[in-house]
Every structure is written in C-alpha cells, then in structure tokens.
Design goal:
The complex is a heterodimer. Chain A is mostly beta strands. Chain A has one helix and six strands. Chain A has a single domain, classed as Folate-binding fold (2-Layer Sandwich), CATH 3.30.2270. Helix content of chain A is 11%, strand content 35%. Chain A is globular, with a radius of gyration of 14 Å. Chain B is of the alpha/beta class. Helices cover 30% and strands 22% of the residues of chain B. In chain B, the strands form four sheets. An eight-stranded mixed beta sheet of chain B has the order 5-6-4-14-15-16-13-17, with helices on both faces. Chain B has a six-stranded mixed beta sheet with strand order 8-2-1-12-19-18, sandwiched between helices. Chain B is globular. Chain B starts with 9 loop residues before the first helix and ends with a helix. Classes of the chains: A mainly beta, B alpha/beta. Chains A and B meet through strand 3 and helix 1 of A and helix 7 and helix 10 of B.
C-alpha cells in the first residue's frame, strides 16, 4: 500500500487517488510542432528513482497536486523539501 | 548429437532413470569475448529467441546475450503462460497468430517438451458493451482466418461447468469470445529450450553481467548519444564489449536501458500481480478471462489454479505483493466460480510490465544506428516471444524492418500512428 499525503485531506491510501503520472513540461499548443506535442503526450523518462508526479484526489477533495516519489521504494517526499 | 547437442528422447529418459546418470548441462558458461557482431541485452524469452533465430535462420552466431541476473528470471518466469491470437487490430492478429504457429512446432523444433496445451480460451462478457467488443474481435479474427467466435451462456456452461452462468449475480455472464487454439505452455521450458538451442549454435549466454551503459558516437546528445548517432558497444559489470549492434530485449527496465542510448520511450512501468492456489483435482478445462473482473484463471497440469490480474494502477519498479490485490482477486474469482471458496492461495508474486499508450509493443530500429528495441511488452510479452525473436532476428540480419512488426515502430508515437490494441490486450478496462 502506498500512502499519499493529500495537502487537503491528509494521508490517504493510493487507491483513493489517481496517479496522473510524471510531470512533463507542456509546450505552447499554439507554437509547438506536432513532433513536440506528441513527445509531450507520450514520451516519459520513467526513471527508477525520484520522480515528480501529479496525483488526483479522486474520492476526496478532487484536487490535483504534485509530490515527489521514489519509484524504486515508493518513498514519498514533498517537492518543497527536496 | 543432434543440431541441439544432447537429444532428449524416451529412450534417454529410461536409461537415465535406470542408471541414475546425471543429465548434461543445458548450456555452458562461456568466456566473454571483447567484441561481438550482435549484443542482446536481456536473457529472457525475447532475448534468447532473438539469438536463436539469428543463428538458426540467418547464420549469425557471433552473438552475446547479457543478463544482470539469471536466464528467464524476469517476466519470462513470472507470467501466467497463456497463449492466444484473438486480438483486435489486423496488425496484432497477424503477429500473435504467427507466434501461436511457432509454439505449435516448438517442442519438435527445440527438442524439449514445452507442454503446450491448446485447451481453448474464453473471454467472458458481463455487459452489453463488452459483448460488442467481443463481436468486433470475433469478426476481425474470422476475417483473418483465426478460429474465434462469440458464444452464449449455455455454451460457456457446457465448456466450463464450474462457471456460474445464473442471471441473478452481480456480474452475469452474457456470453464469451471463444478461441479454441488458445491455451497454456510451460513458460520455463520455453526459455530453457531457446537457451539450450542458442548455446549449441554458438551464441554466448553471459549471465550475471549487468549493462551499465551503452556506448555511442556521433549523436546529438551528451557523450555522442541520441538521434543521429550510432552504437559502438556496451559497458558491463564485467568489462566493455564492443559491438555495432545492440538490441534492448528487456522488460521492466526497458526505459532505463533505452535512456542509456539517449532514446526515450513511450513507456511507464507497472507491476502486475499473480497468484497460485494449492493443487486440487483437475476441473477447469479452459482458460477463463474476465475483463470486467480483472482476472484470468487457468489450471496447471499439477492441479494448481493460476490467477493473473490487471497491472497495479500506480507505476513503480517495486514488486511487492499487496493485500488489496489478494482481497480483490479472491472476491472476483468467487464471483465467477463460487465452488472454489474453500481453496487456499499458496503463493503470490509480481512482475514488471512496460505499458505503452496503445497496448502494442515497440520494435525495430531507432534513431540511433545499430540500437534496436524489442520492448513495451506490457502484459502480452510471453505469448509473443517466438515471433518477436523471429522478426527481430530478420530485422537485424537484413537491415530492413520485418513486415509483421512494421506497425510497431518507435516512430509511431511522434508520427501519431498508434496501434490501439487496448480492447484485446488489456484485462482491466
């Protein structure tokens, strides 16, 4: 079980939330080429280690928030403390 | 001596049984050379099959398969050993059907009993929309000459009497996609068969040799990596190996290996959990899959029930089991087969699945010359192993992408040309 600290609802089981994946910088849709846009949509670094990711508090406050998680250990830290 | 070295036969079994003589080792531990024509990263089913077909079909034997652990210790030994070809896209159907053909003759080709059992495969539909997808798949399958059809609850009950087909359940069985050629294989034997045959043809199987870096030159990125460059070799925990061709046949670690060559992939890695019960009398004659209930069940020759699930929803490289999985699995299986409520689970385990956005693999050449990929095998890598090896070997030997895998190119993501296979490849959707 992964316990995810929602900034609003406190620690919650990960099954109460949805993992929205790695944070990837979004290119400007007005100026991005198709190649850049699709790279943003699909390509991921997928590291075995610390990753900054977005979670959606699905069955709680319905807020999106960002945390850092180590994908090798599932340890979680606040991005502010990195 | 056959072309695979020591030949297994009934006579040999009798002789070894009577004399208690030791069987020869299936493959050796060769001394590493400093350079090879082809280096394959990953000593699982895909890597070993690629090496075997390179040697057998194309005469390329100066090949090394490197693995950080032992052969078949990753997904090849953790899957639920199901084979089938009733996919949704024409590209997928043609590809997986070729694999089923190779599985058919494998025991004779490799002189090793892989215990193929084509017992029939049922994909249950519990909702109208699931039934619609089953009909769609059946029509695509029939058009491509695959034995596959939609059957009603009575026929499901006739084929598999232990299933509850009553209508007052939470997930009533409205019908099923029936695929008679589908079945199960002994997955370890498949790995051993390819390893033994490849070793005998001269391929070097280098176990406990971890790849630390892929050495490139001329690329756009740092250290000459990335698009426009070419591969010159690999750096391993047992020294450097130079090679003009490096093939990534890893599962679970595909992104980490590919990042070493500066080639990012459209992959996120998720664990998938499976479990096995205590053995009991053989009562389940088919492979049963339920998409809505996220479960697939088959019974081994020893009588154990093997259960698989969909991938865990959170991407991670950690492969520990969870109580949530066991609880959900037990509930869902009993929904289908209330009669097995007294059976005990013996063991659960998990393996890593490299999920792509369209549930199809990523195969063939990449923007880095000499670096090829055979990755993104999600939850369908085992059944594709033989054909993946055959087509990757052809692609390496001829320099041209094999026709069967042309649709699975790495460029399809940035070209916007995805091969949507989710309707047939994923359990949990």
């Amino acid at each position: 079980m992964i316990v995810v600290p929602c900034p609003n609802c406190g620690p919650r089981n990960s099954s109460d939330l949805r993992n929205a994946g790695e944070v990837v910088p979004r290119p400007d849709p007005q100026t991005a080429s198709l190649h850049e846009w699709r790279s943003y949509l699909y390509l991921r670094e997928n590291p075995a280690g610390w990753v900054t990711e977005t979670w959606y508090c699905r069955s709680g406050c319905r807020r999106y928030f960002t945390i850092e998680r180590n994908t090798a250990t599932n340890e979680i830290r606040d991005p502010g403390n990195s | 001596m056959s072309r695979h070295g020591y030949t297994y036969s009934a006579g040999k079994l009798l002789r070894h049984g009577l004399t208690r003589g030791a069987w020869p080792r299936m493959w050796g531990r060769p001394e590493r050379r400093d350079s090879y024509e082809v280096v394959i990263i990953g000593g699982g089913l895909h890597g070993l099959a690629t090496a075997y077909y390179l040697a057998e079909n194309h005469g390329i034997t100066n090949v090394a398969v490197v693995d950080k652990g032992y052969l078949g210790g990753g997904g090849s030994g953790r899957n639920t050993a199901i084979v089938r070809s009733n996919y949704l896209t024409p590209e997928g159907v043609a590809f997986y059907d070729r694999s089923l053909h190779l599985y058919n003759t494998m025991a004779a080709d490799l002189n090793l009993n892989v215990m193929l059992s084509r017992r029939g495969h049922l994909t249950l539909a519990h909702t109208d929309s699931a039934l619609r997808t089953m009909n769609w798949r059946a029509e695509v399958n029939k058009f491509l000459d695959i034995d596959s059809s939609v059957i009603g609850p009575e026929e499901v009950k006739r084929l598999t009497p232990s299933l509850d087909v009553s209508t007052d359940t939470r997930y009533p069985i409205l019908g099923a996609l029936y695929h008679p050629p589908g079945g199960i294989v002994r997955h370890d034997a498949v790995v051993w068969g390819y390893a033994r045959a490849a070793d005998h043809l001269g391929v070097h199987l280098l176990q406990e040799t971890e790849v630390l870096d892929i050495v490139c030159a001329g690329g756009d990125g740092p250290e000459g990596k990335g698009p426009g460059g070419r591969v010159t070799g690999v750096r391993t925990s047992r020294g450097d190996i130079s090679s003009p061709v490096v093939v990534n046949c890893t599962a679970g670690w595909a992104s980490l290996i590919s990042n070493m060559a500066g080639v990012p992939l459209a992959i996120t890695t998720h664990p998938l959990q499976a479990a096995v019960t205590e053995p009991c009398k053989v009562f389940l004659p088919t492979v049963v899959v339920s998409g809505s209930l996220h479960v697939y069940v088959s019974q081994t020759d020893r009588g154990e029930l093997v259960f698989g699930a969909s991938v865990d929803p959170v991407g991670t490289y950690r492969v520990n089991g969870t109580l949530e999985f066991t609880e959900e699995l037990a509930g869902h299986v009993l929904e289908l087969m209330p009669g097995i409520s007294k059976m005990r689970l013996m063991r659960q385990w998990s393996g890593l699945c490299d999920m792509t956005p369209d549930y199809s693999p990523i195969m063939g050449h990449t923007p880095v010359e000499g670096y090829l990929v055979d990755v993104g095998w999600g939850t369908y890598g085992f059944k594709a192993g033989p054909v993946a090896g055959e087509t990757m070997a052809e692609t390496i030997a001829t320099g041209r992408t094999a026709e069967l895998i042309a649709a699975f190119t790495i460029d399809r993501f940035t070209d916007g040309d995805l091969v949507g296979e989710k309707g047939a490849a994923a359990v949990g959707h």
